[in-house]
Structure formats: structure tokens, C-alpha cells
Design goal:
Strand content of chain B: 15-25%
Distance between the termini of chain A: 25 Å
CATH topology of the largest domain in chain B: Rossmann fold
Largest sheet of chain A: 5 strands, parallel
Oligomer: heterodimer
Helix content of chain A: 40-55%
Radius of gyration of chain B: 19 Å
Order of helices and strands of chain A: HHEHHEHEEEHHEHEH
Largest interface: A-B, 32 and 30 residues
CATH topology of chain A: Rossmann fold
CATH class of the largest domain in chain B: Alpha Beta
Number of helices of chain B: 12
CATH superfamily of chain A: Thiamin diphosphate (ThDP)-binding fold, Pyr/PP domains
């Protein structure tokens, strides 16, 4: 667990800004991709990779590493930007996103050899099951690594998520923490209009999880939630991180139309001036 | 060649269960995943011997496949078995992305293959699983012909394969006729009967029927080659091309839909490399129904007699 001092938090803020800038640049270079969710998740990934998780960028498959599963493969750009920021590969490679021969596939593809990729994913509703399998393996092997899984809120409409939820609490996987990027939006609009999820925290509690809500753009709030998850003795934990789609670029914040869109070169120039 | 005799009827699922137990004794990384019908698919032997390595996940097949992927990514060799209509069809997207795209060594068992499932009827008779599983990149598809071969197929899938494997097996006790000491080589066709007048290419329960057909045809002086294709993917192309070249006509036989199964796989190889007449024995775009297994096999045309009719037709088309 990293420092929660004012300095620690402000260095995370700086990291998150760099990651957001990388996302804008790589998406503009690619000409397509998902900006909105990449931005809403940027602070969550920053907290995980620069404070919460044990990992070694110079030794990506170190056996003792904490595992990060990105269930929402479409926000791959923010995972790539975070891995590059952490030193898994050079940042220049981010500009190859979605191009022929790139290790940075549109949705994560392990077979392309990018260091730090735990799972090829992109079809929603599958990552949490894989995370459960990893957490069970840690238990079977008596290892103390933790498994983190980032899910989208719209993704929770997939039934398979709830199969996985049931199994995690059945096996008392307190080494598993899921995070929901609760930006409230999906491609057709608000989650509550498309297919309502609320009362979300109560649903997870009813499934036997240690459910918490936090401000997904406040590092103090995020780190506190991760700490509580680590302290939980029995249940798997879920952090419902309240976020804003497009966060960090004021002109697009909260606009669902930016879920699956990339900025043009000109738009990217403007966005890079705005990013905070 | 030695004639095969039935040493006694035994379900291929029993062979699968025995093989899983042996594989688990030999390799501590083998983990079995249960989806409620553990005893019905032969996994109970392993589960009672190794309760710590048996993970019950309930009636949630999509989760079973994802959990298997997570275990495989952590160095385990998971074996997940349930009825093929669920393990191959309910989970198709999970199999495609979590298993095949990640190219993970997971063994999936698909029980209740074919109409020989009997009284449970169409919902539980897997007739589409070969077609679905064989189009997945990285997937190996195995369909053993009897219980002895099913046992060896599991052991081999655990010890010799590296990516995802689908093994198909049946419910009903059927002739157990191959040697428990046979060598099982994934991807290698098994020559069961020699002949050059035509070749019968069979898989699963239909291999026994193919042998009975060959023995009948022998009485008329027709020498049929019988190949058991226990591995449908990767298919043994050289053996099929040789059969086409030396026999000049083929019959395929499978307890599966005609579309997309063994017959299709054989046609893909033969039409490209050495076109000869082929006739197909299988389910013709239809669902099964309830009834005694043997009566259903007769009704839907999964018998030696059907193979003989197809053989005559294929031979009559030679040289046309």
C-alpha cells in the first residue's frame, strides 16, 4: 500500500494526468477507440498501479505479483497508457494503438506479446470469472497475491457477472477485489434508462460481498476503499467507484456520446490543453 | 487385421471419469470443475478422491469456463465437464474469448453426445457441439470411439496437449472394443479395418457401427477400410487423402448434425486434395427425441445398415 500523504496523493494526480494525456494522444493516432470509459477509469488504474498493487514492470510475470484483470477490454487504451507510464514498455509505442502489427490491439490480445497483459478480453461479462479462477488458484497454492478486476457498470447487465459473484462469496475469496467504474453511462445512454442497476450496493451485499462506494476521482477515497478491501477477512470486496465519463476533459465530461469515440487530431490538441 | 470384439458394454463417460482420475493421480495440477451433474458425467471418481482439487460451481457453465481460464492462467490444468449442450453451446462466447483467444490449456468434457442419450430427448442430445467447437482457433476436438479410448483421450489431453481441448462422450453403455493398452496419439487416425474398395470414416459410437458394416460388406466381397477419427481437429489429412486415393469413395459416419461435423471436416480435406464421391451418415438438420437409445439410432439412421446403404451409393458413384 502506497503513501496516503498529501504528497503521495499529489504524485498520483500527476501520474493520472500523464496517463490521460497518453490516452488522448493514442486514440487520436488510432482514429478510433473508447475515450469516455478510459478517462473515467484513469484514476482507478493510477491508484492500482502506482500505490495499491505489488508488481514489477521489469519482471511482468513475477509469480508473486498482484493480478489485474481488465474485464472491460474496450478501455484498453487506459490500461496501455498506465502500463507504459509504469515502465512496462516505451510510451512511444502507445501511438501504434489499433494499427496493423501493433502489440496494442483494439481490445487486449495477449498473443501479441505486450508485457503486463494478464488476459485477452473484450466480450463483456467474462473477466470476473477469470479473476475468481485466479483467486482460487492463489488459495490452492497458498500464495498471498491479490486479484483485482475492473468492471464497467453497463457490463453488470451480463448474467455471467452474477454467476461469478455467487462463486466468489461461496468460496470466501477475500483475496479478490472488483472495482466498478460507475460512470452511469453506456452506449445507448444512462444505465438506469437502458437497464437499471440500482440499488447496486445492496445487490452486491445480497450476493455476499463486502460492498463499498467511493469517489473514483479522489485518491484518498479510492485508497481508503482498497485498504478496507485488503483488511476484509472473509468476503470478496467490491468498490463501486463513482466516476464521470470523460473525466479530466471538461468539455466532454458526462457526455455518453464519447463512450466509443476517438478525438480527431484537432480535437485532441484542444483536449490536451484541457486535461487535468 | 484382427477383428474387434465387444468386451462388454460400457459408457464412454465411464472411461472419461477413469481417465480423469488417473490424470489427477499423475499430475497434481489437474483441477476438476463441477457444474452440478458431477456423477452423471463421470467426474465423481476424481471429486471423491481429491476433494481439495474439485471445485463445485453449480449450474453456471459460463462462470465454469471463465474460472477454468483463471486457473489455467495460474498454472493449473482444469477439466470442466458437463453435458455437451451446455459445455460447448451455453458457453460458446466464453470458450471463444476466455479459452481459445487466450489459448489456455483447459480440457472441456461434453457428455450426452448424440441421440443415443435416449429418453431425455432433444434438449439434452448434443448434435451440434463438434461443429461449434471445431471452428474455434486453437481448439483441439476429440471424439473417442469407446470407453477404453475415452480414458486414454483424457490422459493424453492433460499430458500431451497445450491449448484448449474439447472431448465428446456418450451416456449409453456401448461396445467397448479397443485395447486398454492402445497408444492414443491426438491428431492421428486409427486404421481399424483394411480394405481398398471404399473407406468408412467414423467417429465416436459410429466407429463400432462402421466396423459392423465392414464385416457385413466383407461377406459380399467388398473390402471396406475403416478409419476411426478420434481427433476431429486437427484432422489427420494424410490418412484421409490416402484413403481417397486408394479407395476412390468415402462414407463418413457420426452421431452429429451433417452440417459442420466430421463429414464437413472430411469434405474440406478431400475436395481440396483428392476429390472422390463421399456419402454422409449423420443427422439431417433435425432434432432428436425421446426413446430407447437403440430405437432412436435406428429411427434417425445411425446404424451399420445405414452405413452399408451409403457405402453402396458412394461406390456406385465412383468414376462418374
Amino acid at each position: 500500500m502506497g503513501s496516503q500523504t498529501a504528497n503521495g496523493v499529489s504524485s498520483l494526480t500527476l501520474k493520472a494526468r500523464c496517463i490521460r494525456q497518453s490516452v488522448v494522444r493514442s486514440l487520436a493516432a488510432a482514429g478510433s477507440g473508447h475515450l469516455g470509459g478510459s478517462m473515467s477509469s484513469a484514476d482507478i488504474l493510477t491508484a492500482l498501479y502506482f500505490s495499491v498493487m505489488k508488481h514489477k514492470p521489469e519482471d511482468p510475470f513475477w509469480a508473486g505479483r498482484d493480478r489485474f484483470i481488465l474485464s472491460i477490454g474496450h478501455i484498453a487504451p487506459v490500461l496501455y497508457a498506465t502500463l507504459a507510464e509504469a515502465g512496462y514498455f516505451p510510451k512511444e509505442e502507445l501511438l501504434s494503438l489499433r494499427k496493423m502489427g501493433s502489440r496494442l490491439q483494439g481490445h487486449p490480445g495477449r498473443d501479441h506479446g505486450l508485457p503486463g497483459m494478464e488476459l485477452s478480453a473484450g466480450s463483456l461479462g467474462q473477466g470476473l470469472s477469470v479473476a475468481v479462477g485466479m483467486a482460487l488458484a492463489a488459495r490452492l497454492d497458498g500464495l498471498d497475491y491479490r486479484v483485482y478486476c475492473l468492471n464497467g457498470d453497463g457490463e453488470l447487465q451480463e448474467g455471467s457477472i452474477w454467476e461469478a459473484a455467487m462463486s466468489a462469496s461461496h468460496y470466501k475469496l477475500n483475496n479478490l477485489t472488483a472495482i466498478i467504474d460507475r460512470n452511469g453511462l453506456q452506449i445507448d445512454g444512462s444505465t438506469e434508462t437502458v437497464m437499471s442497476l440500482e440499488p447496486l450496493k445492496k445487490k452486491w451485499e445480497a450476493f455476499g460481498w463486502n460492498a463499498m462506494e467511493c469517489d473514483g476521482h479522489d485518491f484518498g477515497s479510492l485508497l481508503n476503499a482498497f485498504k478496507k478491501a485488503q483488511q476484509e477477512a472473509v468476503r470478496p470486496s467490491i468498490i463501486i467507484a463513482k466516476t464521470i465519463m470523460g473525466k479530466g476533459i471538461p468539455s466532454i465530461e458526462g457526455d455518453y456520446r464519447w463512450h466509443g469515440k476517438a478525438p480527431s487530431k484537432e480535437q485532441a490538441e484542444e483536449m490536451l490543453k484541457e486535461v487535468h | 487385421m484382427e477383428r474387434f470384439i465387444n468386451r462388454g458394454n460400457k459408457a464412454t463417460k465411464a472411461g472419461f471419469g477413469e481417465g480423469l482420475l488417473e490424470a489427477g493421480i499423475a499430475n497434481l495440477n489437474v483441477i476438476a470443475i463441477g457444474a452440478d451433474i458431477t456423477a452423471s458425467v463421470g467426474v465423481d471418481l476424481f471429486a471423491s478422491k481429491f476433494p481439495q482439487r474439485f471445485i463445485s460451481l453449480g449450474i453456471a457453465e459460463q462462470n465454469c469456463v471463465g474460472v477454468a481460464a483463471g486457473l489455467a492462467l495460474s498454472g493449473k490444468i482444469p477439466v470442466f465437464a458437463t453435458y455437451g449442450v451446455f459445455s460447448a453451446l451455453r458457453t460458446t462466447d466464453q470458450v471463444r474469448i476466455s479459452l481459445c483467444y487466450n489459448n489456455l490449456h483447459v480440457v472441456i468434457g461434453g457428455a450426452h453426445a448424440g441421440v443415443s442419450v435416449g429418453p431425455d430427448g432433444a434438449t439434452h442430445q448434443a448434435l451440434e457441439d463438434i461443429a461449434i467447437m471445431r471452428v474455434m482457433p486453437n481448439m483441439t476436438v476429440i471424439s473417442p470411439c469407446d470407453a477404453s479410448q475415452a480414458r486414454l483421450a483424457v490422459i493424453s489431453s492433460v499430458e500431451q496437449c497445450h491449448g484448449p481441448v474439447y472431448i465428446r462422450f456418450g451416456r449409453e453403455a456401448m461396445p467397448d472394443f479397443t485395447s486398454p493398452l492402445q497408444e492414443f496419439i491426438p491428431g492421428k487416425a486409427q486404421l481399424m479395418h483394411e480394405g481398398n474398395d471404399l473407406a468408412i470414416i467414423a467417429t465416436g459410437h459410429m466407429t463400432w457401427e462402421a466396423l459392423q458394416a465392414a464385416y457385413e460388406l466383407e461377406k459380399e466381397g467388398i473390402h471396406a477400410r475403416v478409419l476411426n477419427i478420434h481427433t476431429i481437429k486437427p484432422i489427420d489429412e494424410p490418412a484421409l487423402i490416402l484413403a481417397a486415393r486408394e479407395c476412390g469413395a468415402l462414407v463418413t459416419a457420426e452421431e452429429h448434425q451433417l452440417a459442420g461435423g466430421l463429414g464437413s471436416a472430411v469434405s474440406e480435406v478431400i475436395s481440396k486434395n483428392y476429390p472422390v464421391p463421399i456419402e454422409f451418415v449423420g443427422m439431417n438438420d433435425h432434432f432428436g427425441e425421446s426413446g430407447p437409445p437403440r430405437e432412436l439410432m435406428i429411427k434417425f439412421g445411425f446404424t451399420a445398415e445405414n452405413i452399408i446403404i451409403a457405402a453402396r451409393k458412394a461406390m456406385s458413384r465412383k468414376g462418374i
